[in-house]
Amino acid sequence: MPTLDIPNAQFSKKQWLLSELQSAGLRIGAAARTAPSRSGGAGPTDHKAVTVHGSTIMVPIHTRGAASSPFSTGEIAENGSAPLFYEGETIATVQFPPEPKFYALSTADGIPYWKIAQLHSERVLATTLLQTCIRYGNSTTRCQFCAIGESLKAGRTIKEKSPTQLAEVAAAAKRLDRIDNVVLTTGTPPTPDRGAAVLAAAAYAIKQATHLPIQAQCEPPDDFQWFVKLLASGVDSLGMHLEAWDEQVRHRIMPGKAEVPTSYYLEAFSAAVKVFGRGQVSTYLLAGLGDSVDSLLSGCRQLISLGVYPFVVPFVPVTGTPLAGHPPPSAEFMTAVLAPLGAMLTEAGMTSDTVKAGCAKCGACSSLSSFEKSPSTTCSHA
Ligand code: SF4
User: Which contiguous run of DSSP H or E holds residue 206?
Assistant: First the structure.
């Protein structure tokens, strides 16, 4: 049986496998292709949820790199399991979550529920409220990694989701598929609230219908009173996504969004933590876009000291975006960031299991949570 080459004895085999899978991607058999996956949409995408060694992670499958990954799967059994191969040899068994039951339903006016919201990982209902963005239509402002317009163009979603539609879908997803939290994100509208108003309206309707924990994600609004309004509307956790730490990287990768300087994000984080609490405010940092290990860790240290959870995820090159050919970070790079970051979060008492809702709680887009609370200086290779 082949063994994964674990270059550093401080990592367990599981931590290494999760990081390798997210970096290299997975070639899947034809049958496994029918399991739910994310293609297009806001932020990181082109993934499929895969459970391996008890952890569910999102693994790239639709990307160019995944087509030549050393990882592949065989035939999927009726119970959703399939052998995981590394260079053709079996190394583990993986599980694909079944198609959610709520995907079979439609609204009274004929819109399929899956076009309104999607299952992420195992228990998260996620939706992009506004599937358009002021920055997306122009190559001088567009975030280079984003595919928010692609799923709309392909007819896999609708342009705007109303609070009523969302409440209906969330109630069904809770009842039929045991969804336990909701992620609301949005393309950035041309209004100074940066989408906070539509997020508040949607959160209110979903909370009334389901009482589920909700994370809202937007750019920092002009008026930080929006944080109080979001909380009052039922939002439990807030994400404001820097995406990269170094200003030069930010300007190169997302020229429009980088017009909002990191210093303004830091002000917004401080104000939001006062409202939502330590660890209930988070940010995405995409590793592999140019930030060094040291730069990411120094940024994370600063963010944690403000009470912000830095959700560091490996960049996934998405088909149809300007960065489709950009390589993902190596597993070595990811573990060099995630191992010390996991220890920092553990020490700060801000681990993912303390987050009420959203990406930091779900954790499927990064192996970060596997490095939290782990005795990272010892190796079990288990
Ligand atoms: S971490 Fe966020 S984007 Fe990734 S699967 Fe979970 S909810 Fe979706």
Answer: helix 196-210
